[in-house]
Amino acid sequence: MSQPAARLPLWVDFGLIPLLNLVAAFAVAGLVVALIGENPLDVARIILYGAFGYGEGVGFTLFYATNFIFTGLAVAVAFHAGLFNIGGEGQAYIGGLGVALVALGLDPYLPWWLLAPLAVIGAALFGALWAWIPAVLQAKRGSHIVITTIMFNFIAASLMAWLLVDVLNPGAGSMSPGTRFFDAEAVPPRLSEILAPFGVDLGGSPANLALVAAVLAALGVWLLLWRTRLGYEIRALGHNSSAAAYAGVPIARVIIIAMLISGALAGMMALNPVLGDQGRLLLEFPGGAGFVGIAVALMGRSHPLGVIFAALLFGMLYQGGSELAFEKPSISRDMLILIQGLVILFSGALENLFRPALARIFAPRAA
Predict the structure, then answer these.
(1) Residue range 108-119: mean pLDDT, rounded
(2) Alpha helix (H) ranges present in 163-302?
(3) Alpha carbon 61 to chain centroid distance?
(4) How far is residue 306 from each of residues 77, 300, 310, 315, 324, measured CA to CA in Å?
(5) pLDDT tens across 157-208, in order?
(6) How far apart are CA 340 and CA 346, in angstroms?
(7) Residue 185: CB atoms within 10 Å
(8) N- to C-terminal Cα separation, the chain
(9) What's residue 303's pLDDT?
(10) What is the pTM of this model?
(11) CATH classification number, 39-329, choose in 3.30.700, 3.40.1000, 2.60.120, 1.10.3470
């Protein structure tokens, strides 16, 4: 019979193992870069400088990280319930519809500081509703959550294409699908405007107050999962559904609630690009953030603090990768995707690569 996994100190489980996975991923990526004739250290320098070396780069890194915090938290909540919500992309897409409907309906009447909280509610509500049907199918009919959520991504994409071309487009039928621009007074200020009086220069980066909402969401997820009865039920379900049912946890109800929370968090991702950056709803605005959220949750060990750090890592790869593609034309976008894929591989599929050796070192001490 297989032995249960050794219990490791928290700093090893949540700190050292992800760090080693990350180092291994970048080491392999460095070998690939060397094989195409580039200096891996020079590439690393360009990525780091592009992400953190100047104000505008930092702003773009924070902008991308904001998207990934929301979608990473969405996946993490589902993970804790033993569910694999792969539908964050579609839930974010529909969340954008909620943001746009609030803004389009109320922007002539409300300033941004009154409209923004309503937009948060709209994004969360629409994202949760898009996760509700897969949740019910899983809880009541046994349909696999992976199949239903990924199919709902395609449904969301088709629905939004129709809405943005034929319904919400100010010139219906236009080849430029999107809504009208929101009123300028309804769009929250960017972080560059807020921090400029304090001497912080973020240039023309689109980072905005959605970052604050993302950090607050991470705090809320931590409080929910580790400080409430519902959070205990969600984690108990994820650890052992049979034991949870025997202990009186209402399995179907907890599955549905966990997926609603997950969908709401994914839907809130739309606040960043739709309300905070573009000032309108455009086609394909999620840009794959829902799928990156899976890697962020894996890398962050499904802990809200880990999700924040993992989101910053992927924000660095996105922004630093853009700088790298400009500085090193020989390194294509495909190479950047390869680096991201290696991080996902070592953080997910090879997560236990270093665990056995570390268990031999640290598990006796932990005991």
Answers:
(1) 95
(2) 191-195, 210-227, 229-239, 241-246, 251-268, 289-299
(3) 14
(4) 13, 4, 6, 14, 26
(5) 999 999 998 899 887 556 678 999 999 999 999 999 999 999 999 999 999 9
(6) 10
(7) 12
(8) 22
(9) 93
(10) 0.92
(11) 1.10.3470
